[in-house]
Design goal:
Elements lengths: L6 E7 L7 E7 L4 E7 L1 H9 L4 E6 L12 H4 L16 H8 L16 H12 L6 E2 L7 E6 L1 H9 L9 H14 L8 H4 L3 H5 L11 H18 L4 E6 L3 E6 L6
Parallel strand pairs: 1-4, 4-6, 5-6
Antiparallel strand pairs: 1-2, 2-3, 7-8
């Protein structure tokens, strides 16, 4: 019998120099129990404080191991792909880029990786010390897996989302989360509060809109929720040698 999780965590690792980690926890009813920002010690404390949890981390788990250089793997690639000549990325990133999903490319060494990726690698390496085991595990009370925020939103929309980090992109992603059942403000209310006076005086109701990092943490927590409660609604891509990511399978109904 598989573990019944009570907490579902999403962690976003970003290039932000002050607060590179954004983390959120939802329960089995999809109620948002906590949402925070901080440094690596903050996310350690947050994860360590859980007794039962499934955590989805929006960051590469490993550097690429050169799978795309291997003849056996290359034979499986589309001969018409414009990505075929690229090898300095993970197989899972190739698969997502081939679909048109804009995802970061993970180098083959930590030294070549940007700071935020290095933080993600370090977090993954330390999770076992916090009592977490790689998902799926039939007995572990605390488990984790790699997620990818942009790809998760792409799958739930069924097409490429609007540009990440823009106001319209954040509003769109928030609507997706709302339709998925998370108790976030309906982003359409943002437009109802805009008047000519408020627009001219820089008084937009931005307090109702989650940031890009918060949205990525929330979609990761939602993916953890699906993985723990409705695994038939989740797909996985990639290779164990370089890292497997889990994503929502089908678009939501708008």
């Amino acid at each position: 019998m598989s573990i019944q999780f009570t907490t579902f965590i999403g962690v976003e690792v970003s290039p932000d120099r002050i607060h590179p980690f954004t983390f959120v926890a939802i329960d089995e009813e999809m109620v948002i129990r906590s949402l925070g920002h901080g440094k690596i010690n903050d996310v350690y404390a947050f994860l360590a404080g859980q007794s039962n949890a499934l955590a989805a981390i929006n960051s590469p788990m490993k550097t690429n191991r050169g799978l795309l250089k291997r003849e056996k793997v290359r034979k499986t690639l589309s001969p018409n792909s414009h990505l075929g000549r690229w090898v300095n990325l993970r197989l899972v990133e190739y698969e997502l880029l081939e679909r048109g999903i804009n995802v970061p490319r993970t180098p083959n060494t930590k030294k070549k990786s940007p700071r935020w990726m290095k933080l993600g690698f370090h977090l993954f390496e330390e999770l076992d010390k916090l009592g977490y085991h790689l998902y799926p595990n039939l007995v572990a009370e605390k488990q984790f897996f790699e997620c990818q925020g942009e790809a998760a939103f792409w799958n739930l929309l069924g097409h490429p989302p609007l540009k990440e980090g823009t106001l319209e992109g954040c509003l769109q992603r928030q609507v997706v989360l709302f339709l998925a059942g998370l108790p976030v403000p309906d982003a359409m209310g943002f437009f109802e509060e805009i008047t000519r006076h408020r627009l001219l005086n820089n008084q937009l109701p931005l307090d109702q809109v989650y940031s890009a990092s918060e949205l990525n943490a929330l979609i990761a927590a939602y993916t953890a929720f699906l993985s723990g409660t409705q695994p038939d609604k989740v797909i996985h891509k990639g290779d164990k040698e370089e890292g497997v990511i889990y994503l929502p399978d089908k678009p939501i109904e708008g």
